From TrEMBL:
Belongs to the pyrroline-5-carboxylate reductase family. Its EC number is 1.5.1.2. SUPFAM superfamilies: 6-phosphogluconate dehydrogenase C-terminal domain-like, NAD(P)-binding Rossmann-fold domains. This is Pyrroline-5-carboxylate reductase. Pathway: Amino-acid biosynthesis; L-proline biosynthesis; L-proline from L-glutamate 5-semialdehyde: step 1/1.
Length: 271
C-alpha cells in the first residue's frame, strides 16, 4: 500500500480508517486530508502526525484512492471543490444515504465504491457493507478491501439499496447497543450498584454475549433460551419486554433509520 490516499473530511470515520491504515504500516506522509475545521486538523496532527489541508488543492492529484468521509449535507460542495484534482483516482464514499449516481455525476467518475462502516472501526472491530459501481474493476475492489479490512470485517452487496439496510442495521447499530447499555446501567444503579460496577457489568455482558453468538453454532434465539430458565428471572424480564413490544419497537427503529437514509439521499443527492 505505497500509493497516496486522500481523505475528504477528517472527522470520526476518516480517523477510524486512518488509524487502521497507520497500524498496518501506511506512512502518515502518504495520507492527504482535506478538513476545513482547524480543531479537527489539530486533532489529526496530534493523533497521527498528519498535516491536513483546509481546502482541496492540486496536492490531491497524487492520490490513487480518495475516501469521502464528509456528512451527506456537505458532500456535494466538497465533491465539486475536489473533483478537478481527483480525475484519475478510485473513489470510496462512506456517507450515509448519498447514492453513487449522485457521486458519480459530481465527480465525473464511475470508479466508485460506496461503503457503510460503523464506529467499532475505531478499535479494528467494525463491519462494513460495500457496493461497487460497474466501472470498478476487480483490482479496484481488492484495493478497497485492503483499506477497509484495516477497520474490521466487510461484505459486498449486489444492489445499492441494500446499503440503506446496512446503514440501519450495523451503521447505526452501535448506537442501539449503547442505548441498551445506558438503560441497563441506569437500572443497575437505581437498584443499588455503584455506577461504575453497573457500567462494567453491562459492557462485559454485551462483549461476552457477542463473542458467544459469534463462536456458537446455535442461533441467538437458542442462546437466549439457554439463559431463560422456566419460571426464572430472565423469563420475567423477557415477558416484560414482550408485553411492552420492545421487539416491534426495535424493528420500527430500524425502518426509521432506513427511511432517513433514503431521505438524505433524496435531499442532498444530485437533482
Ligand atoms: N459516525 C458514524 O457512526 C458513521 C458515519 N458514517 C458516515 O461518515 C460520514 C462522516 O461522518 P463522521 O466522520 O461521523 O462525521 P464528522 O462530523 O466527524 O466528520 C466529517 C468532517 O467533514 C468535515 N467537512 C465539512 N465540510 C467539508 C468539506 N467541504 N470538505 C472536506 N471536509 C469537510 C467536517 O469539518 C468534519 O470534520 C458521514 O457521511 C456519515 O454518514 C458512516 C458510517 C458510520
Ligand atoms: O447517523 C448517521 O447518519 C451515521 C450513519 C450511520 C451512523 N451514523
Amino acid at each position: 500500500m505505497s500509493e497516496r490516499i486522500a481523505f475528504i473530511g477528517g472527522g470520526n470515520m476518516a480517523s477510524a480508517i486512518i488509524g487502521g491504515l497507520i497500524k498496518q504500516g501506511v506512512l502518515p506522509q502518504n495520507i492527504d486530508v482535506v478538513e476545513p475545521s482547524e480543531e479537527a486538523r489539530n486533532q489529526l496532527h496530534s493523533s497521527f502526525g498528519i498535516t491536513a489541508q483546509a481546502q482541496a488543492s492540486a496536492a490531491l492529484a497524487g492520490a490513487g484512492l480518495v475516501v469521502w468521509a464528509v456528512k451527506p449535507q456537505a458532500f456535494k460542495e466538497a465533491a465539486l471543490a475536489a473533483a478537478p484534482f481527483t480525475a484519475n483516482a478510485l473513489h470510496l464514499s462512506v456517507a450515509a444515504g448519498i447514492n453513487t449516481d449522485s457521486i458519480a455525476a459530481w465527480l465525473g467518475s464511475e470508479r466508485l465504491v460506496r461503503a457503510m462502516p460503523n464506529t467499532p472501526a475505531l478499535v479494528g472491530k467494525g463491519i462494513s457493507g460495500l457496493f461497487a459501481r460497474a466501472g470498478v474493476s476487480a483490482e479496484d475492489q481488492k484495493r478497497v478491501e485492503q483499506v477497509i479490512c484495516t477497520t474490521g470485517e466487510f461484505l459486498w452487496l449486489d444492489t445499492e439499496d441494500k446499503l440503506d439496510v446496512v446503514t440501519a442495521l450495523s451503521g447505526s447499530g452501535p448506537a442501539y447497543v449503547f442505548y441498551f447499555m445506558e438503560a441497563m446501567t441506569t437500572a443497575g444503579t437505581e437498584m443499588g450498584l455503584e455506577r461504575e460496577q453497573a457500567h462494567k457489568l453491562a459492557v462485559a455482558t454485551f462483549a461476552g454475549a457477542s463473542d458467544l453468538a459469534q463462536t456458537s453454532a446455535e442461533s441467538p434465539q437458542q442462546l437466549r433460551q439457554r439463559v431463560t430458565s422456566k419460571g426464572g428471572t430472565t423469563a420475567a424480564a423477557i415477558a416484560s419486554m414482550e408485553d411492552n413490544d420492545v421487539r416491534a419497537l426495535l424493528i420500527d427503529a430500524m425502518y426509521a433509520a432506513r427511511e432517513r437514509a433514503k431521505k438524505l439521499g433524496a435531499e442532498f443527492g444530485a437533482a
